[in-house]
From TrEMBL:
This is Ferredoxin. Ferredoxins are iron-sulfur proteins that transfer electrons in a wide variety of metabolic reactions. Residues 80-112 are annotated as: Disordered. InterPro entries: 4Fe4S_Fe-S-bd, 4Fe4S_Fe_S_CS, 7Fe_ferredoxin, Fd_C, FdxA, RnfB_subfamily. The gene is fdxA. Residues 1-30, 31-60 form the 4Fe-4S ferredoxin-type domain. Keywords: 3Fe-4S, 4Fe-4S, Electron transport, Iron, Iron-sulfur, Metal-binding, Repeat, Transport. Residues 82-105 have a biased composition (Basic and acidic residues). Its cofactor is [4Fe-4S] cluster; [3Fe-4S] cluster.
């Protein structure tokens, strides 16, 4: 099992999870984070830290596309190991559904 970042991270990008990760397995896109599935040690400390509740165990049903997205972008986006402020529109977009189609950016973030 590993953990996966899902839809609600898009245009929120809270980084509370990054700060507690003992293995630095978060990677930063322009408007969301992903978890590298080969680096995650399944400790679960990130899940309760996410204010947007966007982190889920990969054993939950229906997450196949998110598992793939996390794995693919973790290979190309830069590593992020320090906490930053969320995106300015985070509160507005927290809870908005189906953000992947209209709001996801494949562009990398800054990383460390």
């Amino acid at each position: 099992m590993t953990y996966v970042v899902t839809d609600n991270c898009i245009r929120c990008k809270y980084t509370d999870c990054v700060e507690v990760c003992p293995v630095d397995c978060f990677y930063e896109g322009e408007n969301m984070l992903v978890i590298h599935p080969d680096e995650c040690i399944d400790c679960g400390v990130c899940e309760p830290e996410c204010p947007a509740e966007a982190i889920k165990p990969d054993t939950e049903p229906g997450l196949e596309s998110w598992i793939k997205l996390n794995g693919d972008y973790a290979k190309t986006w830069p590593n992020l190991t320090t906490r930053r402020d969320p995106l300015p529109e985070a509160k507005e977009f927290d809870g908005v559904t189906d953000k992947l189609k209209d709001h996801f950016s494949p562009e990398p973030g800054q990383g460390d």
